[in-house]
Design brief:
By secondary structure, the protein is mostly helical. The chain is built from seven helices and three strands. It has two domains: 83 residues; 62 residues, Arc Repressor Mutant, subunit A (Orthogonal Bundle), CATH 1.10.10.10. Helices cover 67% and strands 11% of the residues.
């Protein structure tokens, strides 16, 4: 086997381990998701707004892979439920920015907090050396991901180039 094949096997092994960890963490998340009582398009919209902050309606539609009319309908229902707020830019009232309301922000934060709590429960059993190694690996991944985004090589939410 050559070096490139070894590297690919190593990456595949890491991804398999990450999937296994995710599957162990997953049992705490569905309860939080089931309590939300929202549709999948609404959940996707909430996650995009949580990760990206205020977003133009047209960009939200593009990120969701739907028409502007479809995205508008999803957001309309979320505004009615008090999960999303629409704002117009003072300098151009045609531009509509969508953002999570305080209620919407709290809903998504509950999911994040539940996941962090479960991760903390697992991490506390690792020794110092394992924690340092994991921290270094995650820091390296974060640094590379940021450089990709800053250089316009990958979109942080869709992976688009």
């Amino acid at each position: 086997m050559n070096g490139q094949e070894d590297e690919q096997e190593r990456i595949d092994g890491i991804l398999k381990l990450a999937e296994m960890v995710f599957r162990e963490l997953l049992p705490t998340v569905p309860r939080e998701l089931l309590e939300l009582d929202i549709t999948m398009p609404q959940l996707k919209t909430m996650l995009l707004l949580f990760l990206n902050g205020p977003t133009r309606m047209s960009d939200l539609a593009a990120d969701l892979g739907v028409t502007l009319a479809t995205a508008t309908g999803v957001v309309d229902r979320m505004v009615e439920r008090g999960l999303v707020v629409r704002d117009n830019l003072p300098e151009d009232r045609r531009v509509v920015l969508c953002r999570l309301s305080d209620t919407g922000q709290k809903m998504v934060s509950r999911i994040w907090d539940s996941s962090k709590k479960r991760s903390r429960e697992i991490l506390q059993y690792l020794d110092t050396a394992a924690l340092q190694m994991l921290s270094q690996a995650l820091s390296a991944m974060l640094e590379y991901a940021k450089s990709l985004r800053e250089n316009g090589l990958a979109d942080s939410t869709t992976g688009k180039r």
